[in-house]
Amino acid sequence: MEEEQQLIPMKLCSSGKEKPQADQLEFGRIFTDHMFLMDYTDDKGWHDPRIVPYEPLTVDPSAMVFHYGQSVFEGMKAYRTPDDEILLFRPQRNFKRMNHSNSRLCIPPIDERFALKAVKQLVGLEKDWIPEAEGTSLYIRPFIISTEPFLGVAPSRHYKFIIILSPVGAYYEEGIDPVKIAVENDYVRTVKGGTGEAKTGGNYAASLKAQEVADEGIAQVLWLDGVERKYIEEVGSMNVFFKIDGKVVTPALNGSILEGVTRNSVIELLKHWDVPVEERKISMEEVYQSHKAGTLEEAFGAGTAAVISPIGDLVWNHEHLEINSGKTGVTAKRLYDTLTGIQYGKIQDPFDWVEKVEEIRQSTLRASG
Ligand code: COI
Question: Which of 101, 139, 304 to mutate for ligand 1's pocket (most ligand atoms within 8 Å of CB)?
Answer without folding.
Answer: 304
